[in-house]
Amino acid sequence: MDEQKIEYFMQYSEIIPNFDAFMESLDKPQPYWMRVNTLKIREEELIERLENKGFKLEKYKNLNAYRIIDMPVKHPGATIEHSLGYYYIQDLSSMAPVLALNPQRGEKILDMAAAPGSKTTMLAELMREGTIVANDINFNRLKSLGGNLERLGITNVLITKKDAKKGNFGIKFNKILLDAPCSGEGTVRKNPWGFRVVGDREHKMLARNQKIMLKNASRHVNNGGIIVYSTCTFNPWENEGVVKYGIETLSLEPVYFDIPIPHFKGVEEWGGEKYEYGEYYKRIYPHLEDTGGMFIAVLKK
């Protein structure tokens, strides 16, 4: 990792536990993870097929998620099984917001920033029956979303192209997933060349947009309904700061939840700002389970 990135991540030395291990993890390549699409194939059948091809896979707890230890191809998407939609390449940390949302049969769910579809497709697999509105503003990313839905055999998703900050979806939902566009610090291992160091001004601009999106989400969720707010970044302005706005300004309530993925609680103070309810939030760091990074909060209207 170059000196600029080292200096950049040092700003979090006081809020990330085991910071030396965290920094060491950023210098290591991120392994591939995959999720079995049980809408199309039994988990045991797929694993047998891939292992017969030379894949070495490690199942993660009771999830249909696997760490790819070794593989006979350069990329895990280069198999007929992937083309047939039998599995989806998705980091374990990316699965956490969907587990927090806990989709149920028959629900109406909005995925506000859905493309290219890793979380949307996982929602559909878990809920089986119900309706998902998958929204994104980027047309090219929406094409990827549509392709993934078709490949995985998912038919209960309606795609919309709206601005998540102001789009009117016409109905209210039982649950909303707002996996907000962010500075992407948690993806630095996956894409070290594409990661761009940003300053305080851009973090604050992103946080402002995230708050506007959260406000729009609160308009579209039923009373008593749930919003999961998540990002793949570490910056508290984009995480705890946005949730604080949701609680204090939008009258949303933090909800305690658990996930089967190692995590730490939310940050309680950073940059002169204090944040309550840290025990309600989850922060996933790369050095805990060899994944990307993720922040998750559950809010009730």
TrEMBL record:
Q: Keyword annotations for this protein?
A: Cytoplasm, Methyltransferase, RNA-binding, S-adenosyl-L-methionine, Transferase
Pfam families, alphabetized: Methyltr_RsmB-F, Methyltr_RsmF_N
- GO molecular-function annotation terms? RNA binding; RNA methyltransferase activity; S-adenosylmethionine-dependent methyltransferase activity
Summarize where S-adenosyl-L-methionine binds, as residue positions: A113, A114, A115, P116, G117, S118, K119, D136, D163, D179
Q: Which family does it belong to?
A: Belongs to the class I-like SAM-binding methyltransferase superfamily. RsmB/NOP family.
Q: Which domain of life is it from?
A: Archaea
Q: Where along the chain is the active site annotated?
A: C232 (nucleophile)
Residue ranges of every copy of the SAM-dependent MTase RsmB/NOP-type domain listed in the record: 22-301
What protein name applies here? RNA methylase, NOL1/NOP2/sun family
Keyword RNA-binding in record: yes
Q: Where does the signal peptide begin and end?
A: none
List GO BP terms, alphabetically: RNA methylation; RNA processing
